[in-house]
């Protein structure tokens, strides 16, 4: 085997291994102890989206001033975040106080059934066949009923034919 072919094959194997590997990044979401319900929901949805895309998420609670004397508030928020993302992720590093920040790391859950499409829930497409047919008005012309191998006939004549055959 010549050296050029060897180099080419090595490059192809390296390219293939890069293609099969997944690049797991670590994202960070910062919360505060006095976070409002709307902000909490928005940030937690983002955390769910990151986990759905396969990233690890570092959740940080930032304390300022007197908030440092109540780390249980930060722990409570981190527990709520972990509870909300239970379907798509699991706690990899339990909450711990690190200076003025409390940190927890979440990892995507492998048994979650695969990543949802870019983190957004998919809506079912409206199906025209699922709508109930509109009621026919009395006296309106009946639409023809076509069966395989039979000539087209109206629903009214099919009903009268069925009654006379009985």
> Radius of gyration, rounded?
31 Å
In what order do the strands lie side by side in the largest sheet? 1-2-4-3
Q: Could you say which overall geometry the principal axes of the C-alpha atoms support? A: elongated
Can you give the helix content as a percent range? 25-40%
Mean pLDDT: 78
How far apart, in Å, are the first and last alpha carbons? 86 Å
Strand content: 15-25%
Order of helices and strands: HEHEHEEEEH
Low-confidence stretches: 113-122
**Largest pleated sheet:** 4 strands, mixed
User: What is the number of E strands?
Assistant: 6
Helix-strand category: alpha+beta
* Number of contiguous helices: 4
Write a structural description.
With 166 residues, the chain is of the alpha+beta class. Helices cover 36% and strands 21% of the residues. Helix 2 (37-52) links the parallel strand 1 and strand 2. The longest helix has 18 residues, at 3-20. The chain is elongated and about 70 Å long. The chain starts with a helix and ends with a helix.
Fold topology:
Blueprint lengths: L2 H18 L5 E6 L5 H16 L3 E7 L8 H14 L4 E10 L2 E8 L35 E2 L7 E2 H11 L1
Parallel strand pairs: 1-2
Antiparallel strand pairs: 2-4, 3-4, 5-6
Q: What key attributes describe this structure?
A:
single chain; 166 residues; alpha+beta; 4-stranded mixed beta sheet; two-stranded antiparallel ribbon; 4 helices; 6 strands; 21% strand
Gist of the model:
This protein has 166 residues and is α+β, with helices and mostly antiparallel strands.
């Amino acid at each position: 085997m010549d050296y050029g072919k060897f180099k080419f094959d090595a490059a192809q194997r390296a390219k293939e291994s890069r293609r099969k590997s997944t690049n797991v990044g670590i994202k960070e979401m910062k919360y505060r102890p006095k976070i409002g319900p709307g902000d909490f929901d928005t940030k937690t949805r983002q955390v769910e989206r990151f986990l759905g895309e396969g990233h690890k998420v570092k959740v940080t609670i930032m304390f300022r001033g007197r908030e440092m004397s109540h780390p249980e508030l930060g722990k409570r928020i981190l527990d709520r975040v972990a509870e909300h993302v239970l379907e798509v992720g699991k706690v990899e590093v339990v909450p711990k106080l690190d200076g003025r920040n409390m940190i927890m790391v979440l990892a995507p859950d492998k048994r979650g059934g695969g990543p949802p499409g870019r983190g957004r829930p998919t809506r079912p497409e409206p199906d025209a066949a699922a709508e109930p047919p509109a009621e026919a008005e009395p006296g309106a012309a009946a639409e023809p009923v076509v069966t395989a191998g039979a000539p087209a006939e109206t629903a009214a004549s099919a009903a009268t034919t069925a009654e006379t055959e009985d």
